[in-house]
Design brief:
By secondary structure, the protein is an alpha+beta fold. The protein is built from 9 helices and 11 strands. A hairpin with a 2-residue loop joins β3 and β4. α1 runs antiparallel to α5 and α8 runs antiparallel to α9.
């Protein structure tokens, strides 16, 4: 039943995450489409303005004495934002407007011929670069940025225009908006995850301290009963074994009391600490489990909290025994490399799929029929948050076993 509840909670958490991700993606797509439509609408408006500008230019060139020239000139002069070039069939530029020229003119140029050679070359190369090997007649039929104007009979001119600075900036706006929205979504998602983890940490710390507090009373009572049994002549073998278990309960209570607060780290020797932490487990695991320690002769110093470190080693060893179903080989190895010491716990159990290498440390993840799936989560917290180290699945193969690796800073 507990596993069912955990699976349902995990499923709800996954649904919430996917729902948040789906809403974020849908929002991004909506804004991107809306922005693109806005840019296309403005681009169409500029095209329409240039068509009117081209018609005014054509009518001005063909105007007779009775034509309203002032009106036509007003239409042409109203274009103060769209870059425009007017050229003949031979790419000779006849007029220009609204281009940011690379070289500053000493005096304002009224015509193309009055420009400096550098600026004339700039405008000519701009036109040739866009046209390529095609004629202006061909471009006026295929490229919406080229408009053919019939000035005189069989003497056309061609208007080439570019998007205005405003439109160019707006064309980048959807992508900038997309970038900002993605960053915002990541910040919100990170805040949610951080808040959730902080809440879990407070819950675990409170639960651990309350567990330690609740264990205090029965431990004191058991100690008193053990002293009474010794006083009334109970067999020393019985009271000795009871005392071992009482001490064990005291160690467990001490471990729980340290969760949620920064433990004091002391200089210890790694191999000695490993042997000590596995001493209790070695006498209590199945005789069908072969426990081997590959420890170098030269011991290595490391800053650890002994009660918590022993908890880590016992937890990993117990998980290895469970993975092998009480029969197989467990090998504990230690060593040092590049300013850090490491411990590897290798078993011959059923193995872990590669997709679950990181999931095994997540709260609630378990493959056992019983259990809360918090053991490896606490192990990761103890190693990484309290000892500044790292723990991960080094390798695993289905049906052959798994190797966990712990890395700690050396002294």
């Amino acid at each position: 039943m507990l596993n069912g509840l955990k699976l349902r909670n995990l499923a709800l958490n996954n649904v919430a995450r996917y729902l948040f991700l789906g809403i974020s993606i849908a929002t991004l797509i909506f804004f991107l489409i809306a922005s693109n439509r806005l840019v296309k609408s403005l681009s169409l408006q500029e095209r329409e303005r240039m068509d009117i500008w081209a018609q005014a230019t054509q009518r001005l060139a063909q105007a007779d004495i009775d034509a309203d020239i002032d009106f036509l000139l007003s239409i042409i002069s109203q274009n103060n934002s769209i870059p425009v070039l007017v050229a003949d069939s031979n790419f000779n530029i006849l007029d220009f407007r609204n281009f940011n020229l690379p070289h500053k003119e000493e005096t304002e140029a009224a015509s193309f011929e009055q420009l400096s050679p550098q600026n004339r070359d700039f405008l000519s190369s701009r036109l040739h670069q866009v046209a390529g090997n095609r004629s202006l007649e061909e471009l006026s039929e295929t490229n919406p940025h080229f408009i053919r104007v019939e000035v005189y009979y069989n003497y056309p001119q061609y208007i080439y225009y570019e998007d205005s600075i405003l439109l160019k900036r707006l064309s980048w706006y959807p992508y900038l908006q997309l970038f900002v929205m993605i960053i915002l979504a990541l910040i919100i998602f990170s805040a949610i995850i951080y808040t959730k983890n902080a809440e879990q940490n407070r819950l675990w710390a409170g639960l651990s301290k309350e567990t330690a507090h609740q264990l205090g009373t029965p431990i004191s009572s058991l100690m008193a009963w053990n002293e009474y049994l010794s006083a009334v002549g109970t067999s020393p073998d019985v009271t000795t074994e009871m005392n071992k278990d009482i001490n064990r309960l005291s160690v467990i209570a001490q471990r729980f009391s340290k969760i949620g607060s920064r433990p004091e780290l002391h200089l210890e020797y790694l191999n000695e600490s490993v042997k000590k932490s596995l001493g209790y487990m070695a006498s209590r695991i199945s005789g069908k489990v072969n426990l081997t320690m590959n420890l170098p002769e030269e011991d290595m110093g490391v800053m650890i909290s002994t009660p918590l470190f022993e908890w880590v080693m016992e937890n990993l060893t117990k998980n290895a025994v469970d993975a092998m179903e009480g029969e197989g080989d467990i090998t504990i190895s230690t060593g040092s490399d590049k300013g850090k010491v490491w411990i590897e716990i290798k078993d011959s159990g059923k193995g872990i799929p590669k997709k679950n290498f990181k999931k095994v440390f997540a709260p609630g993840f378990t493959t056992k029929k019983r259990g809360w799936g918090l053991g490896l989560t606490l192990v990761k917290r103890i190693i990484e948050e309290y000892h500044g180290g790292k723990i991960f699945v080094k390798e695993s193969e289905i049906g052959k076993g798994t190797t966990f690796r712990i890395e700690l800073p050396s002294t």
